[in-house]
Amino acid sequence: MVLPAVVLVGVMILWVLSLFITQIQIQSASYLIARDVARNQMNIYDPQKQLPADFEVHKTITNNFVTVKVRVHKSLLNQRVPWGVDLSAVSIAELERLSVEQTSQNY
Predict the structure, then answer these.
(1) Domain range for residue 75?
(2) Are residues 55 and 30 in contact, defined by beta-carbon separation less than 8 angstroms?
(3) Which strands make up the sheet holding 84-94, listed edge to edge?
């Protein structure tokens, strides 16, 4: 009777560790996407390489800032059971605008 309890606790510890790793991945992805959008480099970062398959990215651009929210649902045992946790990360970056002097120096 003790062995199934130990296995269950071990599986739960591994799942919590995978939640932590996924949270770091989505935080990094939201930062990189916000930075690329702020620099007007839209296609440099591809989030599909790092994030789970069911991620969502929402970008909001205002006058001077871009806000990127990345959401993902992390289910227990890879969607074999209905329980899971919704993870999200938000990053805000100031839009970079080139002044006339900077533009003329680059050409």
Answers:
(1) 2-106
(2) no
(3) 56-61, 65-75, 84-94
